[in-house]
Amino acid sequence: MSVISSVSVKVPATTANLGPGFDCIGVALTLYNEFKFTSHTEAQMVITATGTEAERVVTDESNLLYQAFVKFYQHIEQTPPPVQIDIHISVPLARGLGSSATAIVGGLVGANLLVGEPLSQLQVMELAIALEGHPDNVVPALLGGCRLAATGVENEPPRRTCAAGDFPAAGDWRRQECQEWQICEVPWCEDVVPVVAIPDFELSTKEARRVLPTEVSRADAIFNTAHLGLLLRGLETGRGDWLRAGLQDRLHQPYRKALIRGYDAVHSAAVAAGAYGMVISGAGPTLLALTDTAHSEAVAVAMTAAWMEEGIKAEVRSLCVDTQGAKSIQNLKL
User: Fold this and answer.
1) What class, spelled out in words, does domain 4-185+328-333 have in CATH?
2) Where are the domains of the chain?
3) Is 282 strand, coil or helix?
4) How many angstroms from the chain centroid is the CA of residue 258?
């Protein structure tokens, strides 16, 4: 029987929230991290990193990719093998584009491939959600496309329990009760273009969470429910009026935008150049504009110029929605 000795996994960046879809919607984008896992006989783990901000990638056992790799083997009750991991980074770190999700998904998928895929894609997804603590980034990173995630029916007895190995004993991952998840693919009109503006500064998720209120009014909850529904229909149809209204939010962006220097100026510039609207990507500070193909270049130029006027250098890119998610790009056997 063939033994897989080396696998390479390509995982897309993600943008989450999309305005009113706070903590429940995410989209895979055509920007990628690549991870190569090679089994070897030496009793050690080796990590190398190249690409964007590679010097910041930790190369010891605290590396998030390696932690996910180890957790997979703990979950299937096997000992992790000695492995060399080569990382190529294209998704900027701590910018609101799901770099942590690429690591978690990459580690789980790589381990699953090396051991002969004992877990289904659904099982890998459940483990990824358990490790990340929420589904909005890891689900589209694994499956591709735009995905809406919700828990199952309340007050039903749990149909599944998590093994102890599903959760880290320590670290930054948030422990949560294992749940049934309903994952819904959201149709995305090809003429709706995501434009990401990635500034040269960071914003920690912890700080972005800290500024949020602990309670919201009934009016704001109703507002977001209605506007998320409108956003979903706008994404499917490409209708600009639905998208312009549907991107509005009252749960997180009014509080977080104060943490992002130049937010209002970049927003005004994007809309003036033809964008339907602009939102914070994930926890930020990356900003995401949605526009049509005819205006995507003008929107990118306008967002770049607006941030330059604020003294901030930003990388602005028109991307597409990745429809494949995490995938194996190489498979070597002995």
Assistant:
1) alpha beta
2) 4-185+328-333, 192-318
3) coil
4) 22
